[in-house]
Amino acid sequence: MYVPRLPLIIVTVLAVLVGAGWLVDSIAASRVERAISRDVEEAARLDVSPRVNVDGVPYLAALATGEIPSISVHALDVDVAELGMVNAQTRLTEVQVTRDQVLTGDISGAPARSFTRTIRLDGVALGRLLDMTDLDISHPYDISPAGGVAAEAQLTGTPFHQREPSTVIVDLRLVGDEFRMTPRELVDAPADQTDEEAQAVRDAFTLTLDTRKLPLAGRASTVNMSGGSIFFEAQRFNVSVAMSALSPVEVTGD
Question: Membrane spanning segments where (predicted)?
Answer without folding.
Answer: 6-24
